[in-house]
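#random but structural
TW: two for the price of one
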Amino acid sequence: MDDIKVKTKDMDREAAVEYVMNYYWYHILLGVLSAGLLVLGIYHVTWGRKKVDFSLAVVNQDINYERDERIRDGFSVFSGIPAKNIQADSDFLISYGDVQLEGINESAYDKFFFSWSAGTMDAAVMPESFYHYCKKQRGRFLELTSLQAQERLKELAGNRKNLFFMDNGKYAGVYADQTYLDSEYQRNDADRYVAVFPETGKHKEAAGMFLEYLCVTNVQYGGK
């Protein structure tokens, strides 16, 4: 700034402006871009961040945003949570262990476990083998009894003896093919899909409502 003052002290305003624009345009441009990025960053942190009251991750199904929106909207009707505050994301095609997929974006693996560790994943639908893989990576899941009383779980199960996924005698999840999700997701009888709840999820009340939503068979909410 002092250098500019020295070089333009004998110039009139018009000549000084022309000099600055000719010799310092690059610095001006960088300054404008930096200010713009700062404004965008402040907006994202304060006003631009989307409020999420429940987040569902779907692992190793086809990426289908229309289906994700149907699931989001159905749960919104059931729970009363605004659809705009529910996130259902099937962008998780992941290779792990003996399961090696072709042509996938490996960043999905990092995205999944970052969401887990950050507590921004309240529920997940995944192959049973991936559930066990996550446990080997020291991932911990909620027992369903921490979201619904055991008597309520039995009531929701009714005559469906194969509804709940059990792990060491504990209620660990819900088999997707025993819920309305069977009409949304592809089956794999050799490696069944389970709906489970990461322990780090921040929205336990909403997770409990989603558990009940999966067990409800009323067609009004998308059930069978």
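TW: number two ↓
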Amino acid sequence: MALSTRLQSLSALPDGGQLLTIHLPHPLPIRPGHWFHFQHSHEQRVAAALDHSDVEGWLSIALPRSQAISAQRLAPGAPCTLDGPHGDGLAESDSLQRTILITDPLGLPALLFLARRATPAALALVALDQTDWVRLRPSRYMLPQMPAGVIAGLSPLEEAGIPSRASHAAHPGCHDGPITELLDAWLGSRRAGDRWQDRAVIIGEAAFITQVSAVLRGRIGQYQGLPIPA
């Protein structure tokens, strides 16, 4: 559903990207994992929902530096078009206590959305390649099944009680290889009887979901992908 609306606020992300808050003329059923087409002037972007309020009537999306809108008149009050929500999203009633969440940069906003709702999950693994707008810190959760030295967690997730680990070639404490290696370590550390009671949700680009699914296949009770277009 396309809405003609306006930009409510604009602020900078740590990597030089943009945090946009968009006015919602009426309530929308927005859940973590939903994504939108956002258009201002002649520029259009695809972004997952980062946060929203039906009561106050707004939606927030994050555009990293590589996707920032360059239009000179992008400012609070500027007219824009919002098309969505698209995708399946995670149901409000979804229990995530035995769920591992795995995302690439496109799916990261969905995790932060969950964190803002204080939704508990067993573990979050995040591929942060080319993503520098989220804060990292030494995790307060000991995860001995992870490779040695991989201790960095995402601050918003840790504060919400979600154990997390990340892959990034440049950040200390992150795994410097692909996120699938971290996933393989987690799977290999668990007894088969436990793994078959677990679930994984993969959020991100279709190719990323395919890669992660190949690691999960035959090793976990169930898994599903929530694709977001690149």
